Amino acid sequence: MKLGVFILAVLCTWSGQAIAFQMNPNLSDETINKGTEKFSQFKWRLTQPIHEELTKKTIINVLSKDGICKNVEKKEISSLAAAIIEGSEWNDDPSKYLPKKPIRWAVEMQDANNRAKGKGWWLNKKVIDSKYKPLYRSHYGDLQFLHAMASSTNIPAINTRHLIMMWIEFAYKVSNGEIKKKIKLRNAVSYLSTEKSRDLFSKLFLNTTHSKGGWQVQYMFSAAWNRSASEIRSLALGSILHIIQDSFSDSHVDRIPSYAEVPKNGVSLNGRNQIREFLAYNKQSSKKHAKSDVKPKDINDDNLDIIDYSSQVVLCAFSQQANSWETLRPYLMSKVFLLADHTNPSSAGKYAK
To answer: Phi-psi category of 343—alpha, beta or left, where left has phi over 0 and alpha has psi -120 to 50?
Structure first.
């Protein structure tokens, strides 16, 4: 089979993955439709700039908002807006293939899907872990917390929250400049404030086939060596906003009050708070999952809670307050990642196959 025909076949049969709230990383219509109109799954995933829109709303909001952290320097925020928005796409594309290599992105996504589900006579079902690229791991493996999801079923909600808060602390300390861009991951772990977070970070990022802790922070976020310090900070900041945004997708997190059925026309961002369960994609129907990934019903409303929560992260990242993480962490734990009194271990929820 010729390579071109193989690529088209892969894209035309692509079955989807755990992306909540679609993105559009500056892909032209020509790129999205490249070669055929049959890229239905590929095209659908990349045409609605929901992460970008929510991030843009956040940046506009912070310019006129007071923060929980002190001595905020706002003058840089507007000029770094493009990099922050780019960072909000990082969780979906940690290998940084888009927008220049959309076919490679799609082919690897299909391969990850096949390996995770054991599709194909040459494949046994695999556990996607530290032996694989971050792109594989973030959608089908042990880094699914980057989308506010559990990596498999029967995981206690508090365990997934530990992973989320570990990553947010790391990315936050990159975003505020405490962790410099040339620091290697094996040295960055010491900046995390709890033994639990340091253990989790070490397990996930220091003993991997691809980095072995030797990657610099700048390569982790940009897959390059030529981005400025302020850009790396902004990319890390955007990755935090992505997790917050995804945590309000009903196919990722069951919040109270929950929807009785799979939403048919998108979810609402406001009106849902405490977390009952972090869902697991590996047992979900991709078609059901996708129904809550479309543009939220109230995305154009004023006074969205998710924008206020995200704004506080940005404001703290640009503050001159010492130990600002100690201010931001309890805020996030009480506002964004507050667990209900009774939580459930991870499952497919109402999105089961």
So the answer is: beta
Cα 318 from Cα 314, distance rounded (Å): 6
Reading phi first (left if > 0) and then psi (alpha if -120 to 50, else beta), residue 92 is in alpha
pLDDT at position 271: 86
Query: Between vectors from CA 238 to CA 15 and to CA 218, what angle results, nearest 5°?
Result: 95
Quick one: DSSP state of residue 280? Answer: B
Residue 146 DSSP one-character state: G
Distances (CA, A) of 120 to 38, 111, 116, 163, 300: 22, 10, 11, 32, 43
Q: Where are the domains of the chain?
A: 50-99+130-351
Residue 156 structure tokens: 């206690």
For residue 261, list its beta bridge partners.
none
The pTM score is 0.88
Least Cα distance to 229 among 217, 238, 239, 241 occurs for: 217
pLDDT, averaged per 10 consecutive residues of the chain (353 residues), comes to: 38 45 53 38 58 95 94 93 96 91 86 80 75 92 97 97 98 98 97 98 89 89 96 98 96 91 83 94 88 85 94 97 97 98 97 92
Question: Positive or negative, the Cα torsion across 325, 331, 337, 342?
Answer: positive
Bridge partners of 216, per DSSP, are 184
Find out whether 50 and 199 touch, Cβ atoms under 8 Å: no
Q: Which helix (H) or strand (E) holds 255?
A: strand 253-255
- Report the distance separating Cα 231 and Cα 146, nearest Å: 20
Distance of CA 165 to the CA centre of its chain: 13
Q: Which helix (H) or strand (E) holds 254?
A: strand 253-255
pLDDT reported for residue 28? 45
Q: Where do we find the tokens 């931001």? A: 328
